[in-house]
Amino acid sequence: MRYRVGVLGNCCTHGEFVVAALREETGAELVAGWEADPRRAPALAAALGVELAESPEALIDDPGIDVVALSCNPCDKARWVEGAAAAGKHVFLNKPFAESLDSARRIEAAVERHGVQLVHDIVVTRFHPVTAKLLGEVRAGLYGEPLHHAHSFAMTFSLDFPLADLWPERLDPPARSGGGELTNLGCYPIDYMVALWGLPRSVQAKSVATWAEYRDAGVESFGQIVADYGSFFAVVAAGKQRLRSLPSMGLAEALTPGNWHNVLELQLADANLTVLPYADLVLLNGEALTAERYLGGFRCETPFEQLARAIETGVPPDSSAAAGRAGVEVTMAAYRSIAGGGAVVPLPLADGGNPLA
């Protein structure tokens, strides 16, 4: 079956990324778009090849649209998911999930209330073939009980990379963006941690702003989280780094996975794994495997394929609204810990606000 998709928003050029990804899906037909920001609207219209809708409401209410793909500002996602769900539209929700736990809870409730399906489009870890296969193997108990989890994810840049010119939304206030890089890049390893182990008992966190632009904006460029799962700790580190060794770069180089630092280490009762997806390397009990050898024909489902299957079966995607909300809950607990100087913050949270806002 083919689903007609409208793309709502182009925050940080994510709408253009969504268009490019959905063009590869045989089950998706891109038919509409909307973006108000004059910095972002022309590029979204060009990517789609159609004139943009007059308003988000016009796109959501269009009877010719089956799926609303949301790649807008995080602070707008809850109300537009609610609008789409009320109109009977399914939702393809690009990361980050939301700017606060209150908003994440609204998203989860709207999907359940109106009986629509939502997939959280968070491709770098959950939907990377290597880490997707590993997720299934660990969940199936192939490697035994967890002993330790450590995941570092960062994008690395030259000293002269013009962040404020190319991605000014990254420097928006937390009430609009959700926060700094623990919200933006941290959502990837946080989502993967929660996908593996569920919601932790508590978290502690620290953050820094090593770039002047982040310090001036009052948000973090890099953060660390220690999550207590009772019998073991999971450690996540995520953010943006400026490295003196890197030559001058522009947007194309910044988006090249070769400039990303993505290292996952799992120690389990029956195995040790170190996974570097972008270096084509899986170390399994000391043996170095290429991704091709490790995968052995495994094919990773795409976010849109998960959504289509959910629409057709009524079974929510693995990357569901509940999973997205849990990731936001960990992030908001981390911000509470940071605000408290690294205090231990128990989960689940009662307060759904964003402590940075």
Account of the protein in words:
The strands form two sheets. The protein has a nine-stranded mixed β-sheet. It has helices at 14-22, 41-48, 56-61, 77-86, 101-114, 123-126, 129-139, 163-166, 174-177, 181-184, 187-197, 212-217, 251-254, 291-295, 303-313, 321-339; strands spanning 3-8, 28-34, 67-70, 90-94, 118-121, 146-157, 202-208, 222-228, 233-242, 260-268, 271-276, 281-284, 287-289, 345-346. The chain is 36% helix and 24% strand. The chain starts with a strand and ends in an 11-residue tail after the last strand. The protein folds into two domains: 3-124 and 303-318, Rossmann fold, CATH 3.40.50; 125-300 and 332-339, 2-Layer Sandwich (Dihydrodipicolinate Reductase, domain 2), CATH 3.30.360. The chain is built from 16 helices and 14 strands. Helix 1 runs parallel beside helix 2. By secondary structure, the protein is α/β, with parallel strands linked by helices.
Give a quick summary of the entry.
By secondary structure, the chain is of the alpha/beta class. The protein has 2 domains: 3-124 and 303-318, NAD(P)-binding Rossmann-like Domain (Rossmann fold, 3-Layer(aba) Sandwich), CATH 3.40.50; 125-300 and 332-339, Dihydrodipicolinate Reductase, domain 2 (2-Layer Sandwich).
The profile of the biggest β sheet is: 9 strands, mixed
**Low-pLDDT ranges:** none
Provide the CATH architecture of the largest domain: 2-Layer Sandwich
CATH superfamily of the largest domain: Dihydrodipicolinate Reductase, domain 2
Structural class: alpha/beta
Question: N-to-C terminal Cα separation, in Å?
Answer: 43 Å
Domain count: the total is 2
* Overall strand count: 14
The level 1 CATH classification of the largest domain is Alpha Beta
Overall helicity:
25-40%
Strand order of the largest sheet: 13-12-11-10-6-9-8-7-14
Radius of gyration: 20 Å
